[in-house]
Amino acid sequence: MASAESRAEFERSGVPAGSQLLADLLGASERAVVLTGAGISVPSGVPDFRSPGSGLWENVDPIEVAHIKAWRRDPGRFWRFYGERFASLVHTRPNPAHEVVAELERRGAVRAVITQNIDRLHQMAGSQRVIEMHGSIEFSRCMECGARVPLERVIEMLDAGEGAPECAACVAPLKPDVVLFGELLPAAAMAEAQALASEADLMVCIGSSLTVHPVAGLPELTRRAGGRLALVTVGETPYDSQADVKLHGDVAVELQAVLALMGEHRPG
Ligand SMILES: [Zn+2]
After folding, report:
1. Which residues are catalytic?
2. Domain layout of the chain by residue ranges
3. How confident is the model at residue 88 (pLDDT cuts 50, 70, 90)?
4. What ranges make up the beta strands (E) of 192-227?
5. Residue 73 Cα, ligand 1 centroid: separation in angstroms?
6. Hey, which of 53, 155, 217, 246 would disulfide with 231, CB 3.0 to 4.6 Å?
7. C-alpha dihedral over 119, 114, 250, 46, to 10 degrees?
8. Nearest Cα to 222, choosing from 246, 203, 241?
9. How far does residue 185's CA lie from ligand 1's centre (Å)?
10. Which residues surround ligand 1, an ion (CB under 5 A)?
């Protein structure tokens, strides 16, 4: 929680105490890691299917339609639904929250971004080390020969409207390179994320409710190793009582404020 010092700072300057505290924590840390969830992409117009009334997912049960069993049972039907999700993501762009995260890495204030998102927006904003826990829409894969087909080609096939996009060589249906319900998280990504979390002296969780395991266990690794924990998210999380600082506002506004405060206090 906010220290007496940062509360005093707030009274003097009108700067929200939490923003200053997070700016200070970022400035002091050497191995900070960012963990992001759907909330960071909401200002980019990417629907968060866990929030009620979010368009695309409103009338379906995502656990049913985005399940590996649904793909196996009927790839054409699966893609009729999932293709809409792909198409809705193609033209989305990073928002200022993604840009702040990329800038923090550029400045050396953050080592890496661990994300639950599949939308590629961190990379588009310029983040270099992005660990995608749930895969990405960037490629779809042939499960027979392993060929990876880029998004643009998949969209072309979807637009042609002939059922599931297929591998040109095998004529087998493609599967998006994202982790569907019922599938395990990629082991390499999980191992890298766990190492980063254990080594982190600060974890900044942005736009994640931190309820979906095993990703939700990562802040615990940081805490157990003595690292600090910062939360930037609108809703409640299971870590609220353990966090050193929590910012509740719009992720883009909050992060821009933090970056501005870091700029002012930057040494040299
Ligand atoms: Zn193939």
Report:
1. 134
2. 1-46+94-134+184-268, 48-91+136-178
3. confident
4. 202-206
5. 18
6. 246
7. 10
8. 203
9. 22
10. 142, 144-145, 147, 167, 169-170
